[in-house]
Amino acid sequence: MENTTQTFANHAKIDPPFHYVLLPILTINLIAAIYNVVRHPGVGTAWVLVLSLAAAVAMFRLRIYPLRVQDRVIRLEERLRLMTVLQEPLRSRIGELTDGQLVGLRFASDAELPALVQRALSEKLDRAAIKKAVANWRPDYSRI
Q1: 3-state DSSP percent of the chain in helix, strand and coil, to 5
Q2: What is the pTM of this model?
């Protein structure tokens, strides 16, 4: 994917071992456990269902934690970037940007950043709207 020009349409990252192996296996396991509890109720099948639910919850939590850390790093990087790119009075308004707006702004080029920050603040744009508004995409190939 790093050889492909990144855009809003193709920037979402797929992790094949997670999305194509682990997620389907745990989904099928959960469905099978529910089926077994319905067809053969008992303590053993109920316990397998509980373990299947625990595995599914653990899988989602293990996926969400690094994404949250990534968003924290992006917020920090973008605040630093905005401090160097923006002029007053926008620079003093950096604190008004939401976390989602900061994450969305990471794809904007330095040249279009001031206008996009102004729009984000005045129009209360969300992360997706900001990403769609980016004209000169600044790729990020290091995402989780």
Answers
A1: 70, 0, 30
A2: 0.73
